[in-house]
Amino acid sequence: MDIKTIMPIEFEIAETAPLFHELLNLRGAAGHPAIGVEQADQRQTQALYWVTVRLKDKTEKTRANVVATACVYGDRPRHLAIEDFIVLPEYQHYGLAKIILERVMAFVDERVNAGTCVSINAYGEDERLCTEHGFVHSHCANLGPNLLKVYS
Predict the structure, then answer these.
(1) Which residues in the chain show pLDDT less than 50?
(2) Cβ 151 vs Cβ 112: under 8 Å
(3) What pLDDT does residue 1 have?
(4) CA distance 34 to 57
(5) What torsion, rounded to 10 degrees, do the Cα atoms 34, 86, 30, 57 define?
(6) Are 50 and 16 in contact, with CB atoms under 8 Å apart?
(7) Whole-prediction pTM value?
């Protein structure tokens, strides 16, 4: 019988975008479509804020794998979009979604004016986290993000 040793997992959180291929890999592993990623990569100059979580590999310190990310875009006046809010399924029980969302919302809260709308796509446990931050279901979720928050 093989017994696996439980090793502590270390994460590194950075306020930078993942590399293009890392975002593609993350989207694919999380079951998100790769459609539009090439446009997102071209829009990185318009991205206002990124958070990326990497897994530190104890055996090889130079290698780190992206396990979670989120981005804030401000491509329209009075509207921000949180995109690529992704945590790999095998790392969802570490609280990474909560950490990422708290950082993203701290960034957003500091920069919005009354009337600004923030949108995000989130499902399951991530949706519950978003509602704790004031997001509500969008009436037109079939045409875009399923959650919105309007600042007053």
Answers:
(1) 1-2, 4-5, 41, 43-45, 62
(2) yes
(3) 45
(4) 26
(5) 110
(6) yes
(7) 0.81
Cα–Cα distance, 131 to 16 (Å, whole number): 25
Sign of torsion over alpha carbons 67, 54, 74, 98 = positive
Instruction: Name the residue type at position 15.
Output: E
Place of tokens 């401000």: 74
Instruction: Give residue for tokens 């290698």.
Output: 63
Token pair, residue 15, equals: 């306020």
Q: Which phi and psi (to 5°) does residue 115 adopt?
A: 90, -5
Residue 98 gets which letter from DSSP? H
Distance between CA 114 and CA 128 in Å, rounded? 24
Q: Does residue 29 contact residue 46 with C-beta atoms inside 8 Å?
A: no
* The token pair that represents 62 in the structure block: 């130079």
Taking only Cα atoms into account, the Rg of the chain, rounded to an integer number of angstroms, comes to 16
CA distance 47 to 72: 6
72 close to 105: Cβ distance less than 8 angstroms: no
